[in-house]
Amino acid sequence: LTREGEMRHWRLLATFIASVFLSAALLFAVQPMFTKMVLPRLGGAPSVWSVAMVFFQSALLAGYAYAHLLTRYLPGRVSIVIHLAVMIAAFFALPLAIAAGWGRPPTSGQAFWLLGLFTASIGLPFFALAANGPLLQAWFARSDHRAAKDPYFLYAASNVGSFIALLSYPILIEPFIPLSNETRLWSIGFTILMVLIGGCGALLWRSFDYSAVDAAAGTSEAAPPTWRDAVSWASFAAVPAGLLVAVTAHISTDVAAVPLLWVLPLALYLLTFVIVFQSQPIIPHWLAVNAQPFFILLLLVQFIDPVGTITWAVAIHIGVFFMFALVCHGELVQRRPAPHHLTAFYLWMSAGGMIGGIAAGLVAPYVFNWVAEYPILIVL
What we know:
- The protein is an all-alpha fold.
- Helix content is 78%, strand content 0%.
- α2 runs parallel beside α4 (110-141), α2 runs antiparallel to α8 (227-255) and α9 packs parallel to α11 (310-334).
């Protein structure tokens, strides 16, 4: 490449990384922030977070489905225009607040009432943010950047943003910034993100021939995903997503009701994505697979004869969850498709996450009178 070409590639890469990073950070900052906004109306029961997780996973699936359909049927410049319009519409739904008409929860059916409250209040901004991850990767894959052949590293960058946002909220944001200022800062971040995504679109609009790139993608020798692939992706995503809800409920119900303890399992869940989507993971997949049986034994001992302090018990449950998520997400990476099928990959991953979350967060509490979904998911 010429010097000018190198600079263009650097600007392209930097703009895309900044966009996916900030989008993911906003996406996961809004989760504890809005849940905190809702909690005074429902109390601090662990079930509130479980239902909130179901909403987030369902909205994520909707965003991924939109990104997949947009990339498949309206690729190239049209997708840029449409998605910028969606981002602008979401901007007019700010600042984040509880929607009017959702004052007091009903005496029964609170879970579905809460899902409606989340949808009416933050549904559109969350949907727009959820679509950014796969959509920006699909745009990048259609560029002439030398890294476009394997754009999955951008997913690791997005999960770094999610991980930092989740850890920053209980440590740096919640203790020092009033909730009204949190929503104001979040709106500023969303505005900056709109500018960055507009920059991504402008760089691609001026630089590349989308019709030629998409035609080349359509004639690729890579076979399209099969139903077996889709079921595999959904399954390996469903188990850790369900475990995320189940282990949080188990710790909060049976071990220790610690405020904001759910942040740690969710942060580790995101960290596993950061690890496995690296070209050289710091924990190789083969090592995680071979270490998993020892973690199962440790958990069985803890279930049969609990010993040690509460801190030790929490550490065991969270450590086992981390290892299980690492193995399942590592299997997903082993099965990832060619880049022009990545939106389908993320769509089925998200579908599996939603299925696991609904099973553990909505179905299990009505079926069992204890956290039975936890050992069931361990077996799965």
